[in-house]
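Good morning C.,

I know you're traveling, so I'll keep this short. The sequence:
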Amino acid sequence: MTVPPQEKSPVSPVFDELTRQRTTEIISLYPESRSALLPLLHLVQSVEGYVSPDGIRYCAEALELTTAEVSAVATFYTMYKRTPCGEHLVSVCTNTLCAALGGDDIYARLRTQLGTEDRPLGHEETAGEPGSTGSVTLEHAECLAACDLAPVLQVNYEYFDNQTVESAVELVDALRRGERPQPTRGAPLTDLRTVELELAGFTDDAGGVDTTARVEGPSGAIESVRGARMAEENGWTAPALPDEPPAMPALPEKK
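The tokens, ready to paste straight into the viewer:
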């Protein structure tokens, strides 16, 4: 049986009693405590702004895992950051379609916009003091699953579609001024730590944003459903599934 974190000596004073209560609540949701590792890492990131060595040890102690086991997970998933992040995380899609339509140009320009011509900001580097108002962490991301709206970028995992170099620069400049522009679709913008807390399963602190608006933000786009609309307008339907699946070719004999 896992010992509740609040009964242990704290790994770091940054993990306060509220964090420990939330930790216990997360673990209680899973028959196997180790299954709670992903939301627990998000919880740690909501407190620290990244997953620190102390955060690794905290998760390991709470779940009775080794620090190597926790580190293996934290370094596998790109959503877990190993260096302190800014108030906002800007993710620019540089996968094939976005890159061809301007994603590479957007990323290159934001690197110099947030850094300098001589020292462009690197992947997962931060402009400004991490966590402070207006600070921005920049990253290039693999497919953000919005090819129909390319090129796209995300701010704290909320979509800004059909971007240009100019609109991306305007967006980042607004973030640095402390503004929170409305995403193209999805929930109203908040800060990265609040999003991490939501990913951990807690919506009681939405960073000053109404939680109803966070849930009910628009998620669709005309481009995404155009094929379905054309099919409806033209009476197109997909063929029914056969009663029996088609015969599969015989497997070659093992030698």
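Safe travels,
E.
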